[in-house]
Design goal:
Mean pLDDT: 91
Number of helices: 9
Distance between the termini: 42 Å
Largest sheet: none
Radius of gyration: 16 Å
Strand content: under 5%
Order of helices and strands: HHHHHHHHH
Helix content: 55-70%
Low-confidence stretches: none
Shape: globular
């Protein structure tokens, strides 16, 4: 059995944006390019689900806040983590994106199953699908940056 331990960062860690500004700017550019042409509500759902799976409280707080500001309902936000049991809250397109988000985020567990990819491909044209994949890759990277540098939920530095 795998034990999931929670680690609260108590020591100061580096400021990634200041310590590697070129890398940080490149990631911002990748993120912006991935979002192009995607529905903003879908973008937030993908980012929220990946952040759940990665246990990234910093990004989860940020993206649920962004989703609320964009008009997302509390009901849907509460159901993202259990979307399979609450499918009626999400469109088939959103469900396909959430399933792909899970498969790509947890890729080491079992890869990206053909049926998950096929379902996403049925709901997105090739360009959209490439952008969805790019977005999934960027949020997973952002989650890893936030977790490894000890970002604290509720301290969204974009607001400075």
């Amino acid at each position: 059995m795998t034990t999931n331990t929670t680690h609260i960062t108590t020591t100061a860690r580096l400021d990634f944006a200041k310590s590697a500004p070129k890398v940080f700017r490149a990631l911002i550019g990748f993120d912006a390019a991935a979002r192009e042409g995607l529905d903003p509500a879908l973008v937030e759902l993908i980012q929220i689900r990946a952040s759940h799976l990665n246990h990234c409280a910093y990004c989860l707080h940020m993206h649920t806040s962004d989703a609320r500001k964009a008009g997302e309902s509390e009901d849907r936000l509460h159901m993202v983590a259990v979307w399979r049991e609450a499918r009626h809250f999400f469109t088939e397109r959103e469900q396909a994106a959430l399933a792909l988000t899970e498969a790509v985020t947890l890729v080491a567990d079992s890869g990206v199953p053909d049926e998950v990819y096929a379902q996403a491909a049925a709901h997105f044209d090739e360009e959209e699908l490439a952008h969805v994949l790019g977005l999934i890759l960027t949020i997973n990277t952002w989650n890893r940056v936030a977790l490894s540098t000890g970002k604290v939920a509720g301290t969204d530095e974009r607001r400075r």
